[in-house]
Amino acid sequence: AWVSSLSMGMVFFCSPIVSIFTDLFGCRKVAVIGAAVGLVGLLSSSFVSTIEPLYFTYGILFACGCSFAYQPSLVILGHYFKKRLGLVNGIVTAGSSLFTVSLPFLLRVLIDSVDLFNTLRVLCILMFVLFLAGFTYKPLVPNTKDKEGGKKGKFKLPPAKKICNFSVFKVLSYRIWALGIPAALFGYFVPYVHLMNHVKERFGDSVPEEVLLLCLGITSGVGRLVFGRVADYIPGAKKIYLQVASFFFIGLMSMMIPLCNVFGALVAVCLFMGLFDGCFICIMAPIAFELVGAQDVSQAIGFLLGLMSVPMTVGPPIAGLLRDKLGTYDVAFYLAGVPPLIGGAILCFIPWVHERQKLKERAKPVDGETTEKMLENESTLVSDTTEKPVKELDSGF
């Protein structure tokens, strides 16, 4: 559990650093270098013989490379698409659902035929494809390197305030979003890590485990396409209500897993869970664009993913510890459903706060105009009062 949790957590833990490099050097260079590092980490994992080196090669090196390749793929979409950004994010993120459906069957065949280490070497082909795909990124928004040094000038390191753009936390709606999402994720990934072990304990080896992954992958892809398109019709920060609904249903489905005494009922739960998982993932970037704008979206996503790394890393091992203490996963799944409900409740305040912020911003220039007019009136009054005694003196002379 620690190897997979460490790998999953490092992908998101590195995201604030990735966002800084993305702003400095652009999406293309960061994505290409990240894919190369991930390729080295995955290839080196295929040569280890004990589990301890895997904590570094797979849990840290491979995960860091994936993080550097993943985040630019979200940021680059905002350079090309504005009107249908939700649909585009749904199409792009649906690719992971496609491989979630197909990879379990492929991995089963590969492991049985060529063992685990050669399977990791075969997966390096996918990382090499990711390496080549990074060269196709052509950012349209200039990065910090171009702004500071220009094309002909030498690159000068920008000020620390521009490197770490903490100004996104001045936006109250973003702060609430950055609090609610990690709060919901303490139990979000527990079913994805421990569901297969729960199925073995509850139903034995007679049921096909891959069917559940197939259900999760198919409906997650459908959810990303459908809800990504739906998000385009929802104005402004009200898109957040889709994430609220997704957290509510995912928390409810997690609590229902221990109640499923029939394998068919568990399949139905996985279908709904995958559908709303796709909803949560596909509208992350559109919401970030709405809250902070296109210029700050890279670091806004990076800081959020970095905050997400803590609950994603801690949640599954805690669930595994509860299983070791209690002898069953039931309590772990019940408790895993509570954080998504709490996080969803926190997110409900964002549209109201965001609208108030917009009203204040609209009122600021009006206030400025009125103060300018008041100053102009005062200046005219002062000039009038000074001119009168001068005229009286002139008449006296």
TrEMBL record:
The GO terms this record gives for MF are: transmembrane transporter activity
Keyword presence, Transmembrane helix: yes
Chain intervals with Basic and acidic residues compositional bias: 363-376, 385-397
Q: Give all residue intervals belonging to the Major facilitator superfamily (MFS) profile domain.
A: 122-397
A single Gene Ontology CC term: basolateral plasma membrane
Q: Residue ranges of region Disordered?
A: 363-397
How does the entry describe its membrane topology? Multi-pass membrane protein
Top-level lineage group: Eukaryota
What are the subcellular locations of this protein? Membrane
Q: Enumerate the transmembrane spans.
A: 6-25, 30-49, 55-78, 85-107, 119-137, 172-191, 211-228, 240-259, 265-289, 301-319, 331-353
- Principal place of residence: membrane
Arranged from A to Z, the UniProt key words for this protein are: Membrane, Transmembrane, Transmembrane helix
What this protein is called in its record is MOT10 protein
Provide the gene name from the record.
Slc16a10
